Amino acid sequence: MARSHLTLAALATSAVPGLDVVSASTFGSGAHGDFDAALLTGRDGRHWIARLPRNERAEAEQSADLVALRALSAGVRTRLPFAVSTFAGQTPVNGTRAIVYEFVYGSKVPLSSIDAQLADSIGRAVAGIHGLPTSFVADAGLPVMTALECLRSSITIMDRAAATGLVPGALLARWESATEESKLWQFAPTVINGSLSADSFLSANDQVTGILGWHDLRVGDPARDLFWLLGSTGENVSETGFDAYNAVRGGGDRQVRQRAMLYAELEIAKWLLHGTETRATEIVDDAVEMLHGLLDSVHNDIMNPIGVQTMPTMAVDEVEALLARAERTS
């Protein structure tokens, strides 16, 4: 049962000693999200977010997010060109817990509305994450993956998707060719957020002011934080984002965009696996349709490979639709 913003306000006053809430409003996606959330205003004018998970998956995500936020110490945060939310308090509620965070100011911008100027700021913000020292992630006990482990993870998804018998052979060959290209996987793992999408970013005046959702914080492939940009159909948006990223990072990872393309395409394979695992026929049918649409876009692996010699030219706008569908069915 969904909790109202007034209920969340009452819980917040229990979670944060001395918090005097003078106004509250619903925050986020309402009835369709994994959390009940409210935006609160204290008598001192400060703003807070109170969140309560609706299911076990959301509760696990919230717990992982708290671990990551604690790992992001004050010293680490000073190295980032944007704000990160801060844990303020918690209170138990029927076997789970309501969490209160300090509010990070800014607005979310849909992927379809991101322009080149905001894309430039996004590229620099992501580069800021990837420039953090990896030691604090290891010290917090969070995952640390090598380049080889990142490759193996992709191969595992491909193999599982292939086992369904529903992935076109030309796509499997395209993906296998990418995993066999050794130069594609010669990169230095970095600190990554691990679950970035357009919905992760808060902005004001076309500048990133904050990033939400740190539950997948780890050391891994930097391309994982960038693949979603390829779903933009805006003029020069993905190009500007990658250019800004490379300008900050120095262009040392020459194949980051190619790996991002592979990850974008494998998101559809993951959607297919989600459908088969949950026995949701409508999701399986949707994923199969998207796979065939992807095949039409790339023609075949010979004409448009994901490799070090050529840059894929397709724009994976299917990925945006995929993520939207996944959110609706969660």
Summarize the structure.
It contains eleven helices and nine strands.
Write a structural description.
The protein is of the alpha+beta class and 330 residues long. It folds into two domains: 98 residues, Phosphorylase Kinase, domain 1; 219 residues, Aminoglycoside phosphotransferase (APH), C-terminal lobe (Aminoglycoside 3'-phosphotransferase, Chain: A, domain 2), CATH 3.90.1200. Helix content is 45%, strand content 15%. A five-stranded antiparallel β-sheet has the order 1-2-3-5-4, with helices on both faces. Strands 6-9 form a two-stranded antiparallel sheet. A hairpin with a 2-residue loop joins strand 7 and strand 8. The longest helix has 23 residues. 37% of the residues are buried.
Provide the descriptors you would attach to this structure in a database record.
single chain; 330 residues; alpha+beta; Phosphorylase Kinase, domain 1; Aminoglycoside 3'-phosphotransferase, Chain: A, domain 2; 2 domains; two-stranded antiparallel ribbon; 11 helices; 9 strands; 45% helix
Instruction: Using the coordinates above, name the CATH class of the largest domain.
Output: Alpha Beta
CATH superfamily of the largest domain: Aminoglycoside phosphotransferase (APH), C-terminal lobe
- Mean of pLDDT: 90
Name the CATH architecture of the largest domain.
Alpha-Beta Complex
What fraction strand?
15-25%
Oligomeric composition of the shown chains: single chain
Could you tell me the radius of gyration in angstroms? Answer: 20 Å
Give the end-to-end Cα distance, rounded to a whole number of Å.
16 Å
Q: H/E element string?
A: HEEEHHEEHHHHEEEEHHHH
Count of individual beta strands: 9
Uncertain runs are 309-316
The secondary-structure class comes to alpha+beta
CATH topology of the largest domain: Aminoglycoside 3'-phosphotransferase, Chain: A, domain 2
Number of domains: 2
Envelope shape:
globular
Instruction: Report the biggest beta sheet as strand number plus sense, adding barrel if it closes.
Output: 5 strands, antiparallel
Strands of the largest sheet, in order across it? 1-2-3-5-4
